[in-house]
Write a structure and sequence with these properties.
There is one protein chain. It contains 36 helices and 61 strands. By secondary structure, it is of the alpha/beta class. A hairpin with a 5-residue loop joins strand 25 and strand 26. The longest helix is centred in the middle third of the chain and has 19 residues. The radius of gyration is 41 Å and the shape is elongated. The two termini are 67 Å apart.
C-alpha cells in the first residue's frame, strides 16, 4: 500500500467548492404541469381499471367461477353444465385453470404476482400432468383485481374430479344451457341458465379484498438502473485471517484482584472524580472500593425480599442508573453486583418521561426481567417525582425498586460475611446496551471469561503497569470508558482521574490540565476533545505533556479523527507531546476491543496513512489515490489485532465469504474476549456471534465461530487494521454505500466555526421511491442570517456532490440546542430521524433537492392506441362496456307557470302580480336585516338605473356595463337596470381597500377586456378608484365614465328594452382561472332562462320557499343564485355576504336556523371558516337555540373536485345541532355550463367511492375498499340537472369512453354558454369548447367541453322516476393537471399531502414553472386560515390566494 502524509479533507472541500463556483447550482425550481419529457418508452402500465358493481360484460356473465365460500361451492357443485365435444357452433376457449399457490415472494410467486397486475394468472399444467407437482404450500389470496376470469369454473372442477382428464366444450342453444339434474339426467332450461348466471354473479367479488391492496407492486413501475460496466471491481487475491500476538499468562479474576489490592495496598488511589468546577469531590481508594462493594453485595443478597423468597437471586439482572459525573458510586455498585453474583445492566439516567431513546431502554430492562435499580443518593433525589413523592413511571420502563448505594442507606455487613469469589466461566458478567440504527436497544451479554480475557488483552496491548495514572474523559458506563477506566484499571491497580462532560463544555482544556497535575501516563479521549482543546489552548502556558506515554483515541476510526490527531500533535509537540504516543483504537459492543495501535518505540517514525478513492470505496473496492485529488479519503490505521484474537474481513451481504485484498468488508474476530449474545434474541445472536466465514470455494475458514464487529474495513498486508466506517452508518443510495461520518466530515469542512453550532450535524437516510435518500440536519449559530444559511447550504450541496458524487434529498437547519441529545451531549440520531419523519423538527430553513438524487423515477407511460369506430357495438357499447353517458330529466316549458323568455319580463310580471312579495333580504354581520326588497321595489329601482344610463351615458343597445359593487342589493338592482336599458351587465369584484395595489389591476383588466363603456358603482368605491393610491396602480384617466348609483334620478325610463331575439347576449361572466387566464363567457337570454328553469325544477323553488345564500355574487353559479333565480322562481333569498363571516363565524348557521331555512347554498370557504371557527363552540351554539334539523339540502358550490374530508368534518362537527350528513352535498359547474350537477330535493343521496390514485395517474379508474393504500375518496358531484346531457370523451381523440373510465366531461344543454367573449392570457382561445363533436359514434350532436376529468358510474340506487342513478365524479381540471413522464398528477392531491404533513400547515398552493427539458413542481404551505378564507378573496396578511372560482377554496 502506498503511504501518504496527512488528511487533506478540508483542502478537498475548498477545491470542490471552487470547482463548482464556475457553474450555477441547480436549485429546485417549480415547473409547469405539462412535461416536455418524451413519451416513447416501451412501458405500458397494467390496465387495472375496474367498473362498478353492475359493470360485468356479457361474456363474463356466461362464465362460472369457483366460489371461495362453502355455500357457493356447494351450489356450484350441483349446478354443472354438460359438455359436448361436437358443438354445432364455434365455442369460446376454456377459461384458465386456477393459479398455483405462491411460495414466498421470489420465483414462481413473484411471476404470478407480476402477471396478476396485467390481468393474467399463472396457470398450472392440466390434471394428467399434476402428479409431478410438489406438495402445495398455503396459498396466497387469489387475484381478483381484474375483470378477466382467473379462476376455474365450477363445471371444470367437477369434470376434473370425475375424469381427471382434459377440458370439454360447453354448447349453448340460445339462452339455454344443457344442465344436469341431481340424478345425472340432462335437461334444457332457460331458468337453469338464469340461475347459473345468478350463481356466477354471487360468487364473483365485486371489489378486490382489502388485503390485496397491501401487496406493494410499485417496484415494477420504477425504472431499473442499468449497471455500469466501468464500475470498479475487486481484482485482488483472497485474504487470509490475521493473527494477533499470543496472549500472556493468566491472571486472577477482577473480584480477586480487587480483594488483593484492598488487602495489599488499601490506601492506594483507585479513582478521583472531578466536579463541574474542576475540583476533586470524590477520592476512592482500593480499600474503600472493596468495603463498599462488599456492603452492596451483602444487601443485594440478604436484605431484599425475605429469606425464603429473596427479591434478587444469583444470576438475576439489576439496573445501574448513575449520572455521568459520579463514577465512584457506579464502580461501587458494579463490583458489588459482581460480588453478589448478579448481572449489572448500566443504563442512562432518565431525566424526563420523554427522554430521547428512554422508552427503548425501558423495553430492554423489561425484557431482562429487571425489578431492582441501583442509584446514588443525589441521582435519586433528582429523579422526577409525583406530588406524593413517588418516582414517576417512565414510559416503557418496568416497575422498579430503587436502591440507594451510599453506605448510610445500606445495612451493615457482618464481620464474618465475605462474598464468594467465582472462577471466570461462561456465566454472564454484565450486559452492555447498544442502540441500533433503527432506534432499538439491544443488550450485549459479556461472560466472566470474556471480561477477564478482554482485560488481559488490554493490559498487554497498552502495557499497563501497577500504580499508573490514567485520565478518562469517556463515558465510564460503556465502551472504551468502561473497559479501561472501570475493568482494566482494577486488574492493574491503576489510578483513574475521571473528567465529567459538564466540565469539558465549560473548560475544554480540563483533561490536559489533569494530565499535567497528576503526571498521567495514559489519557482516554475522543477526537472532539482534542479539537476543542486546540481552540482553547492559547490561554494556557504551563502545559507539559511529557508524562504521557499513550494517548488513546476512542473514535480513531472516524474520518475527522485523522486531522484532529495531526493538528493536536503539531500544536502540542512543543509542550512535550511525543509523536508516537497517539494511539487510535476501534471497538464495538459485540466484539469489545477490536484493534489498538501500540505506542511507537521510535518516536521519529510517522504513522502510515492510506489515501483511498472515495468513489471506489462507495462500491466496496479499495483504490489508492493521490492526496491532490478531491474525492479521496485519508484513513489511519487503528493498530494491530488484539492479543489472542484472529481477524478477517467478510462480504457485507449474503454468505460471509472472505474479501479480496482490495475489497472492503465487515471485520469479524474470533476470540474469547467478545460478547456472547443479544439477550433474549436468539435469531440475531446466531447471525452476529456465530458467523462461519468461508472461502470463495466454499471451504470453512475455521471451525470456531467468529463475531461480527459492525465495522467496515480491511487488514493490510502489513498486518495493520484500517476501519472505513460502520455498518449502522452506511447509507445505501443508488447501489452505492456512503458512510454517514464521511458526509458529516464534508459538511463540517464548509466553514464549520462560522456557521454550524458546536459542529452538531446529523446525517441519515429515508426511503423515497424504494431507495434511500440522504438528509442532512444541522444546528445553526444563533446569529446566523437567512442569507448566510442558504449560502452555507448551497456550498454544502456543492461539496457533497463534488466529493461524494451523490445528491442530498433534504438539508435542514434548526435552532441551536434543539436536536435531541445523547447522554454525553451528542446528537441522538434515531430520535432526530423520527422527528424529521413526523414533521416535528421545527426547522429554521429547509432546502429540498429531490431532482438531484431521485433518479429511479416511475417509468414513462406509453398511451395505448385508442379504440376506433369498429369497437362501437349496438350503438351504446364501446370496448365491451356501456358508453359513459347520462342525462337529467326532460326540460319542458309546460312545467312552468309563466312563459317568458327574458328575465326582465319576469321581473315586470312579478311587480304587477305580486308587488309586495319580498324577493331578497340582506343580513349584516350581527344577523339583523340590513335591507330587503320586494318585487315592486326592485322593479322601480331598476327603472331608475335604466333611466340614469340613458340620461348620462347615452348608451346604445348591447353596450357593456361593468358593475363594481360589494355583495348587496345595489348589485342586483344595477343588474336588472342594465337589462331594462338594453345593456349587457358585467359583474366585477371591487378592489379591496386594504390592498388596492394588488387587486385594482385585475379590476381594470376585466373592464378593458369586456369592452365596458361605463362603470356603475357606489360612492365609496368611486372615490377609491380616483384616490392617490389607486392612481399609483392604474392611471385614473384610462377609466371609462364612472357613475355613482347612490343618488338615482327620481324619474323612470320612458321605455323598457325588450330583446328582439332570445339568442342575444344577456350578460357576461368573467373569472380568472387557476392558471392565471382571464376568460369571459357569453350568456344569452335563452340560456339564462333555461338555467333558471332547470335550477327551479331541480330544487323545487317556489314563491313560498326561502333559501339562504352565502356565496360571492360575481361569477358562475354564485351570480346565478344571488341575482337571477329569485326573480325567475319567486322564492325569497336570504343573502349573507361571505365577508361578514370574518367578524361573525356563526352568522350563516345562525341565519339558517333562525329563518328555518330548508335549502342553503354556500362555498367551500364558508364551510372551512365555519368548521375552523366554530369547532369549539357547538355547545354555545346549541344553547343559543341554533337548530339545523330543518335543513334538507346544504349545497356547496364550486368548480372543482368535491372536498370529501372537509364536508365530512363539517357534517360530523354540526351533527349535534341536528345537521344530517345526507343533507350536505356539492354542485358542479364550469365555464361552458354554470350548473351541470346540483343535488336537488328528490333523488338518491350522494355517494362516495374510493379509487386507486396510481390508476388515476394513468387516466384509469380502479375502485378499491376504504382504507386501502393509495386510496382516494371521491364524492359524487350532485345530481344531473334537467335538460343536461353528459358524456365522457377522450380529451385527445374525442372518442366516447366506457363506463367507469376516466375522460373529459362533455355537456349538452340549453343553458350552455354561447362562447368566449375574450380570453386574456392565452394567444389562441380554444374554438372547440362550445361546438365539439365526437370522432365516432354520435358524430352529429354538438357538445361543450368542460375541461374537467371525471367518470360516470351507474349505481344500484334509483332516481325519482324509478331508473338507476348515474353518478358523476369529478377528478380535476385538465388545465391544472401536470403531466410528468406520461402520468397525470392533480395539484389538489399534492396539496393535500403537504397539508397532512404537519398540523401547523393550514393551507397550501401548488405552483409550476418550466424547468430545462422537463417538468417540476413545488408547493408552498401557510399556517392559519387568514382573514380572507371565508370571502375567498386575496387579501393582505390573509391566506394563500384562492385556487378555485365560484366560491371555491
Amino acid at each position: 500500500m502506498t503511504l501518504t502524509r496527512s488528511d487533506v479533507h478540508s483542502e478537498a472541500v475548498q477545491a470542490a467548492l471552487a470547482k463548482h463556483g464556475q457553474r450555477k447550482m441547480a436549485v429546485p425550481m417549480p415547473s409547469k404541469r405539462r412535461s416536455l419529457v418524451a413519451r416513447n418508452s416501451a412501458y405500458t402500465p397494467p390496465d387495472t381499471s375496474s367498473g362498478s358493481e353492475g359493470e360485468d360484460s356479457e361474456e363474463d356473465h356466461g362464465r362460472a367461477r369457483a366460489g371461495r365460500r362453502g355455500g357457493n361451492a356447494a351450489v356450484a357443485g350441483r349446478v354443472v353444465a354438460a359438455r359436448r365435444s361436437s358443438a354445432p357452433m364455434p365455442t369460446r376457449p376454456p377459461p384458465p385453470l386456477p393459479r398455483p399457490p405462491a411460495v414466498g415472494v421470489t420465483g414462481r410467486g413473484r411471476q404470478a404476482k407480476g402477471l396478476a397486475q396485467h390481468g393474467l394468472c399463472l396457470c398450472t399444467p392440466a390434471a394428467p400432468h399434476q402428479q409431478h407437482r410438489k406438495p402445495e404450500m398455503p396459498s396466497a389470496p387469489p387475484d381478483v383485481t381484474s375483470s378477466t376470469n382467473n379462476a376455474a369454473t365450477a363445471d371444470e372442477i367437477q369434470g376434473e374430479k370425475k375424469s381427471g382428464g382434459g377440458h370439454r366444450q360447453t354448447c349453448k342453444y340460445g339462452n339455454a344451457e344443457l344442465m344436469e339434474t341431481g340424478d345425472g339426467v340432462p335437461v334444457s332450461s332457460r331458468v337453469s341458465a338464469k340461475i347459473q348466471q345468478l350463481v356466477n354473479t354471487l360468487k364473483r367479488p365485486k371489489r378486490p379484498p382489502l388485503r390485496e391492496f397491501f401487496v406493494d407492486d410499485f417496484e415494477e413501475l420504477l425504472e431499473a438502473q442499468q449497471p455500469d460496466p466501468d464500475l470498479p471491481k475487486a481484482e485482488g487475491a483472497q485474504t487470509e485471517p490475521a493473527q494477533g500476538e499470543e496472549l500472556g499468562a493468566e491472571s486472577p479474576c477482577l473480584e480477586a484482584a480487587l480483594q488483593r489490592w484492598a488487602s495489599v495496598s488499601p490506601k492506594s488511589p483507585c479513582l478521583t472524580s472531578v466536579d463541574a468546577n474542576g475540583k476533586p469531590f470524590c477520592q476512592l481508594t482500593y480499600g474503600k472500593l472493596w468495603s463498599r462493594s462488599v456492603k452492596v453485595a451483602y444487601n443485594l443478597s440478604h436484605k431484599l425480599g425475605t429469606k425464603q423468597e429473596p427479591l434478587v437471586r444469583a444470576g438475576d439482572r439489576v439496573a445501574l442508573v448513575f449520572p455521568n459525573n459520579d463514577p465512584g458510586s457506579f464502580m461501587t455498585a458494579f463490583y458489588g453486583c459482581l460480588l453478589a453474583d448478579v448481572v449489572p445492566v448500566p443504563v442512562e439516567v432518565p431525566l424526563t418521561r420523554k427522554d430521547a431513546g428512554g422508552q427503548q431502554i425501558g423495553f430492554l430492562l423489561g425484557s431482562c426481567g429487571i425489578s431492582v435499580a441501583l442509584t446514588s443518593d443525589l441521582c435519586h433525589k433528582g429523579l422526577p417525582k409525583s406530588p406524593t413523592g413517588d418516582i414517576l413511571h417512565f414510559k416503557g420502563w418496568p416497575k422498579l425498586l430503587w436502591i440507594v448505594t451510599e453506605s448510610n442507606h445500606l445495612s451493615k455487613t457482618p464481620r464474618d460475611w465475605l462474598p464468594r469469589i467465582r472462577d471466570p466461566g461462561p456465566d454472564t458478567a454484565y450486559i452492555e446496551y447498544k442502540t441500533c440504527k433503527d432506534g432499538g436497544v439491544l443488550g450485549v451479554t459479556v461472560s466472566r471469561a470474556a471480561m477477564l480475557t478482554h482485560c488481559r488483552a488490554l493490559t498487554q496491548a497498552c502495557a499497563y503497569t501497577e500504580a499508573e495514572t490514567i485520565v478518562n474523559v469517556l463515558d465510564f458506563k460503556k465502551d472504551v470508558g468502561l473497559w479501561h477506566a472501570v475493568l482494566t484499571s482494577v486488574m492493574n491497580m491503576l489510578h483513574v482521574v475521571s473528567i465529567p462532560y459538564a466540565l469539558m463544555k465549560v473548560n475544554p482544556l480540563a483533561w490536559i490540565q489533569k494530565v499535567c497535575q497528576f503526571k498521567a501516563k495514559v489519557a482516554c479521549v475522543k477526537s472532539r476533545d482534542m479539537h476543542w482543546a486546540l481552540v482553547a489552548h492559547r490561554d494556557q502556558r504551563d502545559i507539559n505533556l511529557a508524562s504521557l506515554r499513550m494517548l488513546l483515541v476512542a473514535d480513531g476510526a472516524n474520518p475527522w479523527s485523522v486531522s484532529s490527531c495531526d493538528a493536536f500533535l503539531n500544536v502540542f509537540c512543543t509542550k512535550g507531546l511525543k509523536s508516537g504516543i497517539i494511539c487510535p483504537c476501534a471497538g464495538s459492543p459485540e466484539a469489545l476491543s477490536v484493534a489498538i495501535r501500540r505506542p511507537a518505540k521510535d518516536t521519529s517514525e510517522t504513522p502510515p496513512r492510506g489515501v483511498l478513492s472515495m468513489y471506489s470505496l462507495s462500491h466496496g473496492v479499495i483504490r489508492l489515490d493521490s492526496d491532490d485529488k478531491l474525492a479521496v479519503l485519508a484513513v489511519q490505521d487503528v493498530g494491530r489485532v488484539m492479543p489472542g484474537a484472529v481477524m478477517c474481513a467478510v462480504k457485507m451481504d449474503g454468505v460471509p465469504q472472505l474479501c479480496k485484498s482490495d475489497e472492503v468488508g465487515e471485520l469479524c474476530v474470533r476470540t474469547v474476549a467478545t460478547g456472547s449474545s443479544y439477550y433474549g434474541l436468539s435469531g440475531r445472536t446466531k447471525n452476529t456471534f456465530e458467523v462461519v466465514p468461508v472461502t470463495s470455494a466454499g471451504t470453512v475458514v475455521d471451525d470456531s465461530p467468529f463475531t461480527r464487529t459492525g465495522l467496515l474495513g480491511f487488514v493490510a498486508a502489513s498486518g495493520l487494521v484500517y476501519v472505513a466506517g460502520k455498518i449502522d452508518g452506511l447509507l445505501a443510495v443508488g447501489g452505492r454505500h456512503h458512510n454517514a461520518d464521511d458526509i458529516v466530515a464534508t459538511a463540517l469542512a464548509v466553514e464549520p466555526m462560522k456557521f454550524v453550532y458546536r459542529g452538531r450535524i446529523a446525517v441519515f437516510s429515508i426511503e423515497v421511491l424504494h431507495d434511500e435518500r440522504i438528509v442532512v440536519v444541522a444546528e445553526q449559530r444563533p446569529d446566523s442570517t437567512e442569507e448566510d444559511s442558504f449560502q452555507w447550504m448551497s456550498r454544502v450541496l456543492q461539496a457533497i456532490d463534488g466529493i461524494h458524487r451523490v445528491g442530498v434529498y433534504c438539508l435542514v437547519l434548526v435552532s441551536p440546542n434543539t436536536l435531541p441529545k445523547s447522554p454525553l451531549g451528542g446528537i441522538h440520531l434515531c430520535e432526530t430521524k423520527q422527528l424529521f419523519l413526523e414533521g416535528a423538527l421545527h426547522p429554521s430553513n429547509v432546502l429540498m433537492c429531490p431532482h438531484t438524487c431521485v433518479t429511479n423515477l416511475p417509468k414513462p407511460r406509453q398511451k395505448q392506441p385508442e379504440i376506433g369506430p369498429a369497437s362501437v357495438m349496438l350503438g351504446n357499447l364501446v370496448s365491451g362496456k356501456r358508453i359513459a353517458q347520462a342525462s337529467g330529466r326532460d326540460l319542458t316549458q309546460a312545467e312552468d307557470s309563466h312563459q317568458f323568455l327574458f328575465l326582465s319580463e319576469v321581473l315586470q310580471w312579478r311587480a304587477q302580480s305580486t308587488p309586495e312579495h319580498v324577493l331578497y333580504t340582506l343580513l349584516n354581520s350581527r344577523g339583523a336585516t340590513a335591507s330587503s326588497v320586494t318585487c315592486s321595489q326592485l322593479h322601480k329601482k331598476a327603472e331608475k338605473v335604466a333611466a340614469m344610463l340613458a340620461e348620462r351615458s347615452h348608451l346604445r343597445d348591447g353596450d357593456h356595463v361593468a358593475l363594481l359593487y360589494p355583495p348587496g342589493m345595489e348589485l342586483i338592482v344595477s343588474f336588472y337596470g342594465c337589462l331594462y336599458a338594453g345593456c349587457v351587465p358585467v359583474t366585477v369584484r371591487p378592489p379591496h381597500p386594504r390592498d388596492v395595489a394588488t387587486t385594482l389591476p385585475t379590476v381594470k383588466m376585466i373592464v378593458e377586456v369586456s369592452c365596458s363603456v361605463c362603470v356603475l358603482t357606489t360612492q365609496v368605491i368611486s372615490k377609491l378608484l380616483r384616490s392617490k393610491e389607486a392612481s399609483a396602480a392604474v392611471d385614473s384617466r384610462t377609466w371609462p365614465p364612472i357613475l355613482d348609483t347612490d343618488d338615482l334620478p327620481k324619474k323612470k325610463a320612458p321605455l323598457l328594452y325588450k330583446p328582439s331575439n332570445s339568442d342575444t347576449l344577456a350578460y357576461l361572466d368573467f373569472s380568472v382561472s387557476t392558471t392565471g387566464m382571464l376568460a369571459g363567457v357569453k350568456m344569452s337570454h335563452a340560456a339564462t332562462s333555461a338555467l333558471c328553469r332547470s335550477i327551479k325544477l331541480q330544487c323545487e323553488l317556489y314563491p313560498s320557499r326561502e333559501v339562504a345564500i352565502c356565496l360571492d355574487p360575481y361569477c358562475g353559479l354564485g351570480l346565478v343564485l344571488w341575482c337571477l333565480c329569485s326573480v325567475y322562481s319567486g322564492h325569497r333569498s336570504i343573502l349573507i355576504p361571505p365577508c361578514e363571516l370574518e367578524s361573525n363565524a356563526s352568522l350563516w348557521l345562525w341565519a339558517v336556523s333562525q329563518h328555518k331555512v330548508r335549502d342553503t347554498f354556500c362555498s367551500y370557504g364558508v364551510v372551512d371558516t365555519s368548521t375552523r371557527g366554530l369547532a369549539m363552540q357547538t355547545d354555545a351554539l346549541k344553547s343559543r337555540g341554533v337548530d339545523l334539523s330543518r335543513v334538507r339540502t346544504c349545497v356547496v358550490v364550486a368548480e372543482e373536485r368535491p372536498r370529501t374530508s372537509l364536508t365530512r368534518s363539517f357534517s360530523k362537527l354540526f351533527k349535534d345541532l341536528g345537521l344530517q350528513s345526507r343533507a350536505v352535498s356539492t354542485a358542479f359547474g364550469c365555464r361552458v355550463n354554470m350548473a351541470v350537477c346540483l343535488q336537488g330535493t328528490s333523488g338518491p343521496d350522494p355517494t362516495t367511492v374510493f379509487v386507486d390514485m396510481r390508476a388515476l395517474r394513468h387516466d384509469r379508474v380502479r375502485l378499491v375498499e376504504k382504507g386501502s393504500p393509495h386510496s382516494l375518496p371521491l364524492m359524487e358531484s350532485g345530481k344531473i340537472l334537467p335538460g343536461v346531457r353528459i358524456i365522457i370523451a377522450n380529451p385527445e381523440t374525442k372518442g366516447p369512453m366506457g363506463e367507469s373510465h376516466l375522460g373529459e366531461i362533455w355537456v349538452q344543454s340549453s343553458h350552455n354558454a354561447s362562447g368566449y367573449m375574450s380570453v386574456y392570457g392565452d394567444e389562441a382561445p380554444p374554438s372547440d369548447h362550445f361546438a365539439s363533436r365526437l370522432s365516432f359514434g354520435d358524430t352529429h350532436s354538438q357538445w361543450s367541453r368542460t375541461g374537467y376529468l371525471g367518470f360516470l358510474r351507474r349505481t344500484q340506487l334509483t332516481d325519482a322516476n324509478g331508473e338507476r342513478h348515474d353518478a358523476l365524479y369529478v377528478v380535476g381540471a385538465l388545465e391544472e393537471a401536470m403531466e410528468l413522464r406520461g402520468m397525470r398528477y392533480h395539484p389538489v392531491d399534492i396539496e393535500t399531502s403537504v397539508v397532512r404533513t404537519h398540523k401547523s400547515i393550514a393551507q397550501c398552493v401548488h405552483v409550476e414553472q418550466p424547468a430545462g427539458g422537463g417538468g417540476g413542481a413545488g408547493s408552498v404551505g401557510a399556517g392559519g386560515a387568514g382573514p380572507g378564507a371565508a370571502g375567498d378573496q386575496r387579501r393582505p396578511g390573509g391566506a394563500l390566494p384562492d385556487r378555485r372560482r365560484g366560491g371555491g377554496r
